[in-house]
Amino acid sequence: KSRKNAKFKSFALSNHCEPPPLQVDMLPYGIDRLAKFVTIKGDILDDFIAIRYYDTGYTHRFSGVSGEVVCTSDPQNIQAILALRFADFELGATRKENFAPLLGSGIFTSDGLEWEHSRAFLRPQFSREQISDLESAERHIVNLFRAIGPVAEGMWTKEVDLLELFYRFTLDTATEFLFGESTESQVAELSKKQGGGIDKDGPENQLKSSPKNPEPEMDFATAFTTAQDFLSWQLRFPSPLWPIIQLPIFSPYRRFSQALTIVHRFANKYVDIALKSAAKKPAMASFPPSSEKGGPRERFVMLEALAEKTQDRDQLRDQLLQILLAGRDTTASLLSWSFALLAQNPAIFSHLRSSILSTFGSAEPPDNSDNPITFTALKSCRPLSHFISEVLRLYPVLPCNFRVATHNTILPTGGGPDGKSPIAIREGQLVTYSVYVMHRRTDIWGEDAAEFKPERWEGRKAGWEYLPFNGGPRICLGRE
Ligand code: HEM
Question: Which residues bind heme (predicted)?
Fold first, then answer.
């Protein structure tokens, strides 16, 4: 250890590195900080994370349970972590071990060669052809409007919790795109509310309550959310404490275990169907859609496309669940912030609405026949893209993230009394970064940084100071 320390010291010295400012906690190893992080009930971003950056510096460090942690919200440093020094950082064991029970191993939880393989395996499935299936999205949108309810006099619906509805909407669209069959959780919920009982997942996907298993049954939607919530919460604790959280006497853990069974049963069912059907197809049959071959456009199903490339059941299941995790909450979160901001900003709402109507016409045919709503038309609608960019600036879905150094390395700035010297990062050291803080820095975005102003995107090209989808080789595959 002392040889490693000496090596690190001389590495730091020879690269003119200086440490960034230190955030001092009251108790040793920042136990008070950890306790607050785990138990905080308020706004974890503003009241806990961002405040530490404002108090100590946009790049700073603190003493954690397993050593010193560097925190940064500096574009240059984040660019170094994600792109320029990509090979010097990895996701680290914590993220992999945390998600492994639910997601196994795949693009979202691997590093090095394994990640490269996953990325190459999945990337072709995100081409424009595959992701521009607006017809299936439209069907789920219609269900979303049904769930919101009828418009009464005065053009208002009843008060509804949109976030819940968006979670169902994104689950339904994502499962259809990934597995070929939608969970139709919106339809199931509507039917429940109207007194009917749709059991869309089928009895084999549900875990019934019994004397041995007193917890109520869960459908796939609940199971996936339950598993995800448990893992997000577990991630707040240092990993040596996880075995305590995972004791079977602990009821959230029991519920998590049940949820895992349901999620895996659901995914395995569709993987088995796809594998059987791929085995029957002639070799090398593959997407692209048959519209290019002159016939009607076939619906793209990611599982079917992947099952033509591999017959590994676990790999197919894990990769699809990983994409479901990456794509579902993120989209629901963006949607709900968008609507919250529209509600708070009536002038912006009116402007966006009239821009969309003047671009696409009303929803009623034949109005929109001249400029149908297509993927390309949506992308080139500037007021819409400025609006979305601004929502993701103020409310990036992944506000904080972290990486672990694979060997001694350097971040270009933030060290020393003037905060301009490079910082030495030790092999195995945790580096956290916050795009939430970066997206709100007044020195980058101006004094009005905290204000919601889609017009700030007029003529602005985003660089490393704007990273809602990450950057570098691991940039989000679903960003389009
Ligand atoms: C508003 C929507 C979304 C946001 C803000 C978002 C954001 C992100 C971010 C920040 C990462 C980097 C995570 C990290 O490296 O630690 C990421 C990765 C990823 N995202 Fe998204 N995402 C969104 C939607 C989607 C969708 C819809 C899909 C798929 C259908 C998707 C698939 C992925 C995948 C596969 C990765 C892993 C890439 C890799 O590690 O190589 N995302 N996303």
Answer: 476
